[in-house]
Structure formats: structure tokens, C-alpha cells
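Regression check, iron/sulfur cluster case 348:
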Amino acid sequence: MYCQYITDVSSITTLSLDLRQRLAAKGWQIGRPLIAKAFQSTDGTERYLVQCQPTDSALVGVPAPPGGPGTVETVWMPEGDDGEAGDGTGDGTGDGKDWRRATICVSSQVGCAVNCQFCLTAKLGLQRNLTAGEIAGQVVAVLDRQAVRVGRDRVNLVFMGMGEPFLNYDNFMAAVRLLVHQVGLSPQRMTVSTSGIVPGIQRFANEPPDVRPKLAISLNAPNDKIRAEIMPINRKWPIAEVIDAVSSIALRPHERITFEYVLLGGVTDRPKHARELAHLVRRTGLPAKVNLIAWNPGPGIAYEMPNTESVEGFKRTLAEEGIPVYLRQPRGRDIFAACGQLKRTVEG
Ligand code: SF4
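Current build output:
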């Protein structure tokens, strides 16, 4: 299932024909999520509506996860979105493919409870947690579709799709272990993003390095006042508590913590915010970099995109302050696949 991308019991040739026939006759299926719909962007990005739970019949022998519809969205970005730039993982070649590297953005929950004010997924609320198999299975379904050969092709995973991974911690980490041990992907090619769930970060700090992805903090504001307005979770765990928890992680050589920062026009994109952010990042004392994301618009969300000058100015100010800074390329905006836009087809 995980290495040969098998989707049918009858294809498991390591089992005898007789056993395969008996399993099939009893209704056993392989429960890999299905790509029910694919949306193609002009920039090569593909957004998938992934059906995690069969609609026709429950899997035999596998208890159905409780409640809610079972669809999420997963995104394939050939050439990535520069999110991993500057994190020490280098560059690679795709060996005959028309992409040299690719990033898969993976969902961890159906919907999300965190309620970040700039995010479309938040509008769904939390519908249910994904199981470990559903999280890892999204990746396998995309690897299969793109004919990826693990070990030859360079593929990065970002757990930045729908949901807050640290509010589904056990399933998320079980999925990472499946992806490392069964699929063969390196945890150093994986990044998990959290909105700042302090107990989750504390648990994460104790994970062994051979299964611990890199960490990104979805910061998005230079101080607690603005952050609490755009991310209500900050009232529970303010910035200082989040930084304190992150400090307890034993980073690998050359590893950096990423601070994700969504630029909201007029709200978080001013030069004074950049200077305040630089001060904050320096004060953490952590090896860190900042990933800037120009906010992607969504219906029903009353923020504005930052203009090009303020994005460039923000980036320049951070660089002048000595902070490593990268601008994430918006991928798949035309198909609502970009950061903060995942929801449309799930809601139907
Ligand atoms: S940005 Fe992430 S954590 Fe915040 S509401 Fe959206 S999916 Fe949830």
C-alpha cells in the first residue's frame, strides 16, 4: 500500500491467490483515500478533493471515524512554493521529470477549530479529526498520481492544509511514522505548521529526531495585541509562551524554526510591524527564518491583499534587520489552492 501504491487486495502478489480471493470475497478492501476531483492551476499546481471515507460502504473490519463528511483538500505544487528555502535542505533534480522538486500540502483535520480570521478553512469549523491512515494516505494517493519514486524524486511535505495538526496530535504523529517507516520519506523533508498549541509543541519537543518533522510557527503578527485580533488562539497561548515551548526543541544541525507571517494589507504589513517582528525574532534567540505570505483573498473575509510595494518593503526591512526572510510564492490562486483558501469543494 505504502511503497507500491497498491489499491486493490487482488494486486497484493505477496499473498497467495487463494488468500487474496478469500479476502476479496469477504469484502476486505484497501482503505486508501481517493482523489475524487482534481483542479489544475495555470501554474502547474493541482488541488485535490480527497475522499477519505468511502461513501458507498464502510470498510470491512475498520471502524468508521465518527461524524462529519470525509473529504479534505490536498495540494501538489511542482517546484514547491519556496517555503523550504533557507532551511538547509538544499536543492535536487527530478531526473527526467518536468519538475525538479515538489511539495505536497497535507490536511490533518476536516475543517478547523482554531478560527484564524484570515482563513477560509476556519469557516467550516471542526468537523472531525483525520485518522493516521487518512493523513498518510493523502500523501500516498498524490505520490501515486504523480508517479513519484521515493528516493529518486525530491518531495517535501508540509502539514499546512486544513486543520491544526497539534489538535490531532496522536494521529498526526502516527501518520508521520507511517510516512517515514513505510513510505520512506525523510522527516527532514517534512514541515509541520502550528498556530501555537503549546501542549502540542511541548510533546513535539520530546519526539525522537528520526521521526520529528521541522517546525513552523504560524505567527502572522508582530505582537500579542494584533495577533489576538487575527488569531483568537493567542488569548490562550500568547507569543511568549509559544516561544518558550519552542525553545525546548533540540534542533538538528543547520535546522531553523520557521515563522510564517501572513501579510494582511494595512493590518500587519507596515514597516513598523517589520521592525517589531525583527526584534521579536531576535529576542527568541532561536535559529530562525521568516516566511512571508501575501494574504490570498477569500469570499466573506474582510481583509485586503497587501500591495507589491508593502510586501517588498516588509521583506527589505526584515533583511536589513538581519533576519533571514523568504517570500512564499502564491501557488494555485486561480483554483483556490493557495494558503488559507482550502475549503470550497469540501463545503460543496
Ligand atoms: S490558518 Fe490553519 S490553524 Fe488557522 S484556522 Fe486556518 S487551518 Fe486552522
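Comparison notes: Residues 76 and 104 are 5 Å apart (CA to CA). Residues 55-68, 90-96 have pLDDT under 50 and may be disordered. No diff flagged against the previous build.
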